[in-house]
Amino acid sequence: MKEKADIGMIGLAVMGENLSLNIEGKGFTVAVFNRTVAGVEEGVVSRFIKGRGRGRNIIGTESLEDLVKALAAPRRIMMMVKAGEPVDALIEQLIPLLDKGDILIDGGNSHFADTVRRTNYVESRGLLYIGTGVSGGEEGALLGPSIMPGGSPAAWPHVKPIFQAIAARVDDASVCCDWVGSDGAGHFVKMIHNGIEYGDMQLICEVYQVMKDLLGMSPAEMHEVFRRWNQGDLGSYLIEITGNILAYTDTDGEPLVDKILDTAGQKGTGKWASIVSLDLGIPLTLISEAVHARCLSAVKEERVRASETLPPPPVEFSGDRDALIKDLEQALYASKIVSYTQGFALLREAAREYKWDLDYGGIAMLWRGGCIIRSVFLSKIKDAFDTNPALSNLMLDPFFRERIIESQQAWRRVVSTAILHGVWVPALSTALCYYDGFRNGRLPANLLQAQRDYFGAHQYERVDAPRGQFFHTNWTGQGGETASSSYNV
What we know:
alpha/beta; 8 strands
């Protein structure tokens, strides 16, 4: 074992423990520290060293001071602790113990704005800071996650050998880790990843609901459909595990999925993405709908009471089951296009707002392996941005335009059939609404602007005048000529 460790790890919960094992397995020495839980006779570090860390190049430490002493210069310390105040508190504890040029790394799901603030603060104290997204869950952390680092550019050369050694690799040997950008860029990209994850999961759940409630399919029958889909254009980690879940039986031989309570939790990243989209004026309708869907699932008792008094439409499905399953595949693919379209549109606007130089095709490559949204789909996104780096909307890329046009009628049949039969499909339907809005050269916002000018003198632009020239009408004949401020688009 080396006298000094290559990197320190603070936090030995699931992600921290597995990342430590992954790093050590790639030839690096890791020093670990975890705050001892009051009342626990043996510390977390001691149990780890005697258990999964036995015989490995892992140095256990019992204080932050010991951790810092155990590290080679420049010290690299990765914090895998709960986002929010615990990160700030830990930074304050570590700064007095470190030397100029040492590097703090936040590998949790921190809000990107906090990472912007922390990067500036840590740099002002002579240190370097990285906020990195890490995706892949327990398995990814151990075997190879997708890693999305951002922060102090000067820190990247010092952590690059470690991060790229432990990251996932795909078939063409590409590494799912590269520098994303300055200050909060890494955590912003991870936030968008998680938002797309929210959308993908909700879309899959709605397809499952249509199969279950409308077509009366058993989990075993659905498993076969998802298994087949995973071998085609929809091939992805989430489609794969959905098929596995549907095939899993409980101890009594019955499908376990049917016994799981229908209330979903969230950790906040999807909500953050929705909030930022409103701040930047980018429609993130599908991801936002997926967040709201989780919120609606949480009011279980109210929904049960409502189901007793609010009836579904008195219509039974009498269509072709196999045809609808084929339509579902097309609708799911088209809706995924919308989800990624919105996510990358938000990335582009954020890059403009926060002065980040983001590589959109490169980001798609980071997500090809290790992470939760990994899929064959992402290679097409890389191709789209390689062909046109200035691409403003994925649906304008020739490949995605063709695919969404091909899927359009099947998509409409799925959404209309579900709605007519009272099956809840908020993400599938809002994706279609976004498509219809985006392809429409004239929306009814002209009437909306007339309304705003009528009651608030907010002004409007005219189709027969240059953009940026504003007008106000005295609609009632009783108002004056004074106008309010113009509107923001």
